[in-house]
Amino acid sequence: MLRENLQNTLKEAMKAKDMNTVSAVRLIIAGMKEKDVTARGAGKECASDADLLAMMQTMIKQRNESIKIYNEGGRPELAAKEQAEIAVIERFMPKQLSEEETKAAINGIIAKIGAQGMKDMGKVMAELKSAYAGQVDMGKASGLIKSLLG
Fold first, then answer.
1. Model pTM?
2. Assigned architecture for domain 2-90
3. What's the CA angle centered on 76, arms 14 and 73, to 5 degrees?
């Protein structure tokens, strides 16, 4: 589904001559193909949607870091370009969970797997990644898990 959406968006953007969208979608597709090659090396046919969503989350994080650097360096035009790319990438991402929803999800996972303390943090993170791929910022989730388990 995600792959079809990317291809359809690319075609529509090319017809509309929306070069910002075309370049951002091409970056996503290039990353997708790279993930597919890696997956084939691991014996899978192609990368899962969860892998692709994680890749797109990383792309957003990288662009946010670039925006900060460009703004500090007095280059608002480059920051605006990065922000436009983020807007395109976010169109393909599922709705992000709020902090309360994230806490509820983490508590549910802790109860489900019977996590007792910090030694089970990896198990909780793995379950959270697989169940809520692309919906949770794992950096923030890590801090929440530590506070709930610690």
1. 0.75
2. Orthogonal Bundle (1.10)
3. 130
User: What are the residue boundaries of the structural domains of the chain, listed by start?
Assistant: 2-90, 99-149
Question: Per-residue confidence of the chain (150 residues) as pLDDT tens digits?
Answer: 889 999 999 999 999 999 999 999 999 999 999 999 999 988 888 888 888 888 998 999 999 999 999 999 999 999 999 999 999 999 998 888 888 888 898 989 988 888 888 888 889 888 888 888 778 888 888 888 888 887
For tokens 């794992």, what's the residue? 138
Contact between 118 and 150 under an 8 Å Cβ cutoff? The reply is: yes
Class of the domain covering 99-149 = mainly alpha
